[in-house]
Write a structure and sequence with these properties.
- The chain is α/β, with parallel strands linked by helices.
- It has a domain of 211 residues: NAD(P)-binding Rossmann-like Domain (Rossmann fold).
- The protein has a seven-stranded parallel beta sheet with strand order 3-2-1-4-5-6-11, with helices on both faces. Strands 12-9-14 form a three-stranded mixed beta sheet. A two-stranded parallel sheet has the order 7-10.
- Helix 1 crosses helix 8, helix 3 runs parallel beside helix 5 and helix 7 packs across helix 11.
- It is globular, with a radius of gyration of 19 Å.
- The two termini are 34 Å apart.
- 47% of the residues are buried.
- It binds nicotinamide-adenine-dinucleotide (NAD) and uridine-5'-diphosphate-4-deoxy-4-fluoro-alpha-D-galactose.
């Protein structure tokens, strides 16, 4: 297939480019590099032996989006491009609504105008809000707790409406749980700008000495060790899930939400200890107050992904920690030289 990958230079996008190229697809990346480095695409080329075509442009630039579709006939689009930091979205809501909603509207309009109706969209378990019960199946109630979450929910709603009005659409909404880890080569991985908000990049940066100490946000939750539970999924499993979604698009009419998670929850302390085992030493860490807005537990019911996409996560917590550490220790400053 000829695939356009928006946000393909980013963390999940670059890993998905690797899997897509390995599967024999022709990949074009559309990315404005606002949260990525072109070096990630050099690394994709080093891993696969094939360099994806690259359009450096902004989804907010409608003419550039049109030009991308004028230049090539795509069979499908994987849409990763978006801003993703929850805290930043609270501080800069307009930027999040503009970038994520308007950018997506431009993309969907040009897809429609060019007769491209196959789409895999990066949604998030954030659309389940603060879960009433776990595991979370796709039919669980949807809500949003912050502007970032609202952009995901609203884009999902837009796509549901578009698919209802125009039967030619084949759309899979992939709701990721907590993507972590890195490609086993150690050539590509997560490289957040500034101080990381998420647990795994914080841990890896403490381990490599870029940050002093890990704060564990709360140890008085009603869980087995008092820390919150999440469904950590290896980014390569996640990338493979996109390939399974692409392969299943034909048989999936309309707009189908699918969880991408392992179905297993780990506590913060379990993840930290597993990472310490991979590094071979304890990390400087302390218990800090709860982080406002955190759900006690969130993990997937991954049944639908197996049934509809034939996909199941294969890699466990040990592989996740080994690969995350391999990436960070080989690239202590990420993609910066
Ligand atoms: P990322 O920031 O590494 O990748 C996003 C990419 O999109 C970046 O390369 C960025 O430069 C690009 N981009 C952003 N706005 C753009 C625009 N207007 N035009 C062109 N390019 C633009 O993030 P990621 O972790 O790889 O996430 C990919 C997608 O998955 C995002 O939509 C994110 O919301 C979603 N998601 C991520 C997580 C997570 O924890 N990483 C969890 C759930 C969902
Ligand atoms: N945590 C710490 N210390 C840190 C960072 C995080 O203890 O320095 C804890 C959090 O309190 C939470 C757990 O680690 O209990 C996981 O936190 P993350 O920030 O890594 O992940 P979240 O589950 O809070 O959020 C992530 C994405 C969201 C997405 C959500 C659901 O950041 O964008 O998963 O997919 F919406």
């Amino acid at each position: 297939m000829n695939i356009l990958v928006t946000g393909g230079a980013g963390y999940i996008g670059s890993h998905t480019c690797v899997e897509a190229i390995k599967a024999g697809h022709a990949v074009t990346v559309f990315d404005n590099l606002c949260n990525a480095s072109a070096e990630s695409l050099n690394r994709v080329a080093a891993i696969t032996g094939t360099r994806p075509d690259f359009i450096q442009a902004d989804l907010l630039d409608r003419a550039a989006v049109k030009a991308a579709f004028d230049a090539k006939a795509y069979d499908a689009v994987i849409h990763f491009a978006g801003l993703k930091a929850v805290g930043e979205s609270v501080a800069k809501p307009w930027e999040y609504y503009n970038n994520n909603i308007v950018g997506s509207l431009n993309l969907f309009a040009e897809m429609r105008d060019h007769g491209v109706f196959n789409l895999v969209f990066s949604s998030s378990a954030t659309v389940y809000g603060n879960p009433e019960k776990v595991p979370l199946a796709e039919g669980a109630p949807l809500s949003a707790l912050n502007p970032y979450g609202r952009t995901k929910l609203w884009i999902e709603d837009m796509l549901r409406d578009m698919a209802a009005a125009e039967p030619r659409w084949h759309i899979v909404l992939l709701r990721y749980f907590n993507p972590v880890g890195a490609h086993e080569s150690g050539l590509i991985g997560e490289d957040p700008g500034g101080i990381p908000n998420n647990l795994m990049p914080y841990i890896t940066q403490v381990a490599v000495g870029r940050l002093k100490e890990l704060s564990i946000f709360g140890d008085d939750y009603p869980t087995r060790d008092g820390t919150c539970i999440r469904d950590y999924i290896h980014v390569c499993d996640l990338a493979e899930g996109h390939l399974c979604a692409l392969a299943s698009l034909d048989k999936l009419q309309g707009c189908t939400p699918v969880n991408l998670g392992t179905g297993n929850g780990f506590t913060v302390l379990e993840l930290v200890r597993s990472f310490e085992k991979a590094v071979g030493r304890p990390l400087p860490r302390r218990i800090a107050p709860r982080r406002p807005g955190d759900a006690v537990a969130s993990y997937a019911d991954a049944t639908r992904a197996a049934a509809l996409l034939g996909w199941k996560a294969k890699r466990g917590i040990d592989a996740i920690c080994r690969d995350a550490w391999n990436w960070q220790s080989k690239n202590p400053r990420g993609y910066r030289p």
